[in-house]
Structures are given as structure tokens and as C-alpha cells.
Amino acid sequence: MGAKERTLSIIKPDATRRDLTGKINAKFEDAGLHIVAQKRLHLTEEQAGKFYEVHKERPFFKDLVDFMISGPVVVQVLEGEDAVALNRKVMGATNPANADPGTIRKEYAESIEANSVHGSDSLDNAKKEIAFFFSETEIVG
Ligand code: CMP
């Protein structure tokens, strides 16, 4: 049995625009990921740039920031056994062309950029990313 973990998830503007929040949340809940915090935000350019700071030297950085501020996002904390890895499995590969059948990105992503969801890639980053958006009192497990 794996350890109980929390991970940060973002439902991206391509998905909120198509009203896919409920369908994506159903995928998380069906997989055993509990949504223990959730809020809908319109990120500022500064927030999006800071959140994706690790990618700032990558060629896709500016486009990524522009995309992430192009509409509302839903930021959420998912909790469950091995939540970081489990969420990555439910999301599927970053590029939807490589995503397994049944995953969120295979079913809903439009492109490698407009790929419907973000999920933390490690427990360390999950802690930092959760703290970026939520205070402890906003997370109710
Ligand atoms: P995400 O998991 O949020 O992390 C970084 C994001 O950059 C990624 O999902 C994609 O939305 C976006 N992106 C755009 N182009 C690329 C690329 N070539 N490789 C990886 N990520 C990309």
C-alpha cells in the first residue's frame, strides 16, 4: 500500500472553455483521487510566468504563459495513495499523441500545449505547487 500524498492539478483553459471540468473531475474521482481543494481562477501573466518559472528558458515558454492566461483555470489539490504518480497516470503523456487510451489527455487534449491538465511531477514539486495556490485552511481532506 502506497503512502497518502497530495498533488497539485490544474484544469487548463482549453478544457474550461469546453466545459470539461466535470468530466475531468470524474476521471480523478473514479481513479481514487479525492478533490480536497478546488478554485476557479483567471491567472495573471505574472502568476503564470512564476508558476512555470522552471520552463522560462524553453522555446515554448511565452506561448505557454499566453495560453495559460487565455481563459479561466481550475486549480485543485488531489489526495490519495501515491497521488503524484496516480494523477500522472490518469492524465496520460504530455503530448496527447503519446497518451494511452482512456487518459484525460488522450480523450480531451487538443495539442501538446493545450493539453487540458497539469499535474505535479514529484512530491517535492507538489508541495511547492500546492503552497503556490492554497493555504492549509483551504485544503479539507
Ligand atoms: P505541463 O504538464 O503543464 O508542463 C509544462 C507545459 O508546457 C506542458 O504541460 C504543456 O502544456 C506545455 N508545452 C508546450 N510545448 C511543450 C513541449 N514541447 N514539451 C513539453 N511541454 C510543452
In short:
By secondary structure, this protein is of the alpha+beta class.
Main attributes?
single chain; 141 residues; alpha+beta; four-stranded antiparallel β-sheet; 4 strands; globular; binds adenosine-3',5'-cyclic-monophosphate
Distance between the termini: 19 Å
Q: What do the pLDDT scores average to?
A: 98
* Strand content range: 15-25%
Structural class, judged by helices and strands? alpha+beta
Ligand set:
adenosine-3',5'-cyclic-monophosphate
Order of helices and strands: EHHEHHEHHEH
As a percent range, the share of helical residues equals 25-40%
What's the shape? globular
Rg, alpha carbons: 14 Å
> In this structure, how is the largest beta sheet organized?
4 strands, antiparallel
Would you count the extended β strands for me? Answer: 4
Looking across the biggest beta sheet, what order are the strands in?
2-3-1-4
| SS element count, helices | 7
Instruction: Identify low-pLDDT runs.
Output: none
Protein topology:
Blueprint: E1 4-11, H1 13-17, H2 21-30, E2 34-41, H3 45-51, H4 61-68, E3 73-81, H5 83-91, H6 104-108, E4 117-119, H7 123-133
Antiparallel strand pairs: 1-3, 1-4, 2-3
This protein binds adenosine-3',5'-cyclic-monophosphate (CMP).
Adenosine-3',5'-cyclic-monophosphate (CMP) binds at residues 55, 60, 64, 94, 112-113, 115, 118.
